[in-house]
Amino acid sequence: MAKDYDPQMHTAEHVLNQTMIRLFGTGRNFSAHLNRGKSKCDYHFQRDLTDTEAGQLEAEVNRILAMNLPVVEEFVTLAEAMKVVNTSKLPPEAVEDPDGRIRLVKIGDYDVCPCIGAHVESTGECVPFRLMSHSFNEPDVLRLRFKVG
Ligand SMILES: [Zn+2]
Q: Rounded to the nearest whole angstrom, what is the distance from the C-alpha of residue 55 to the centroid of ligand 1?
């Protein structure tokens, strides 16, 4: 994890992922570079977003963040985790000692995913989310660049 890893950026990433899933049917990002100043996330998608769609995405992420949803963690067994999230890509370190528990991070009722990172306590700390640019690379990589706060 980068030295300047930023809980605000990272929490916004969770909300961005869930919003991409809901608006555009993508999965969660498959690659993310989070920095305090500016971050980028890559999604598998078949085309670029239009500027109108990018505006809708930014507005929706901000709408969710502004609801000031609580960010809470919950430790569950792998079997329990498999009922609510895709656990196929869990890194080995996501399995917490001593009893093999998985840490799920929930953002209100909006998003849940297994995560070992650091988060803010509620999403209002991430406002405003600014989508700085979007670009597409053949065959299927959509890159989003954003800032928060
Ligand atoms: Zn996280």
A: 24
pLDDT tens per residue across span 14-49: 999 999 999 999 999 999 999 888 999 999 999 999
Q: How far is the CA of 128 from the centre of ligand 1 (A)?
A: 18
How many Cβ atoms are within 10 Å of 95's Cβ, its own excluded?
Answer: 17
- Residue 36, SS3 per DSSP: coil
For 54-94, the three-class secondary structure string (H helix, E strand, C coil) is: HHHHHHHHHHHHHCCCEEEEEEEEHHHHHHHCCCCCCCHHH
pTM for this structure? 0.92
Tally the residues of the chain. Answer: 149
Please tell me the distance between residue 126's alpha carbon and the centre of ligand 1 in angstroms: 13
